[in-house]
Design goal:
114 residues; alpha+beta; four-stranded mixed beta sheet; 3 helices; 4 strands
C-alpha cells in the first residue's frame, strides 16, 4: 500500500465532510475518506466532519445540498464530491493524488439501517 511519501506534492489538505447523522452511508463516507487520507495524506491533512442536522447553516454556507458531501477547500482549486466515497479512484483524481486507490470499507461497517 502506498504512503503519503509516494504521492506528489506536499500541500496541506483542508477537507470538510458533510454527513446526515449516523446513517450507514455517512459512516461509510467517513471511513472511506479517512482511509484515503491516512493512505495518501498522512500527517498533512485536516478533516472536519459536519452533521448537517446539527449544523445546517454550515451546509448552506458551503452550498451543500446532499449528504454525504466532501469538500476540498485547500489546496486550490476547491472540489466537491458527493456520495459514500466507495469508489476511491475519482476521489484520488479529484484531490490531485496519483496514488493507487484504497479498497473501499465494506458495507458491513455499521449495523444501522438508513
Amino acid at each position: 500500500m502506498a504512503n503519503g511519501d509516494d504521492c506528489p506534492g506536499r500541500s496541506e489538505y483542508q477537507l470538510r465532510l458533510f454527513v446526515s447523522g449516523a446513517t450507514r452511508r455517512s459512516l461509510m463516507a467517513v471511513a472511506n475518506v479517512r482511509a484515503v487520507c491516512e493512505t495518501a495524506l498522512a500527517g498533512r491533512y485536516s478533516l472536519e466532519v459536519i452533521d448537517i442536522y446539527r449544523d445546517p447553516l454550515s451546509a448552506r454556507a458551503h452550498q451543500v445540498f446532499a449528504a454525504p458531501t466532501l469538500l476540498k477547500l485547500a489546496p486550490t482549486p476547491r472540489r466537491m464530491f458527493v456520495g459514500d466515497m466507495r469508489d476511491t479512484a475519482p476521489l484520488f483524481a479529484g484531490l490531485g493524488l496519483l496514488c493507487p486507490p484504497v479498497p473501499p470499507v465494506p458495507p458491513e461497517i455499521s449495523g444501522s439501517a438508513r
